[in-house]
Amino acid sequence: MTDHVPASLYFSDISYNLGGRAILDNISGCVKPGQVMAIMGASGAGKSTFLDILARKGKRGAVNGVTLVNGREVSDAEFKKVIGFVDQEDTLMSTLTVYETVLYSALLRLPREMSIAAKKFRTLETMNELGILGIKDMRIGESGAFWSTLPSMTFYLTPFAFR
């Protein structure tokens, strides 16, 4: 859409302490538009915690560090307008097609003022950007229907989010 602005995420010195114990310590990096960053590690290494912090989900402990969107600090309200987050417990309906699933998410997440036609267009545009138009009619539960969508920024622990 014409109002879509690609977003870069810069983070520096991200630390998280809980109960006097350092869970994360001085993590820095950046992700630019069109890039994918994989956060890898053993079970319990703090991957989900790190994503929660980057996505500004509330944490009980002390979070320190700086996150910048397109080079500037932004409020939580502004931040939530450009990110998507899919929790690891989210599930997909295996009886829907890839297109139906992305469209369903668009209908729920995009502004109410946006027309249905614009949401359908955005769905196809996103699928084209991801290179998944070729599987748009595949059912999610069919073999080979692996995919994800990307808003300006998406933090995902499962295979789906919408911008």
Reported for the largest beta sheet, the result is: 3 strands, antiparallel
Range of helix content? 25-40%
Count of beta strands: 5
Task: Please tell me how large the radius of gyration is.
Answer: 17 Å
Poorly predicted regions are: 144-151, 157-163
Summed up, what is this model?
By secondary structure, the chain is an alpha+beta fold.
Q: What topology does this entry show?
A:
Blueprint: E1 9-18, E2 21-31, H1 47-54, E3 62-69, H2 76-82, E4 83-86, H3 98-109, H4 116-130, E5 153-156
Parallel strand pairs: 4-5
Antiparallel strand pairs: 1-2, 1-3
Structure characterization notes:
The strands form two sheets. Strands 2-1-3 form a three-stranded antiparallel beta sheet, with helices on one face. The protein has a two-stranded parallel sheet with strand order 4-5. Helix 3 (98-109) crosses helix 4. It has two domains: 9-82, no CATH class; 98-156, no CATH class. 26% of the residues lie in helices and 23% in strands. With 163 residues, it is α+β, with helices and mostly antiparallel strands. It is globular.
Give me some keywords for this one:
163 residues, alpha+beta, three-stranded antiparallel sheet, two-stranded parallel sheet, 4 helices, 26% helix, globular
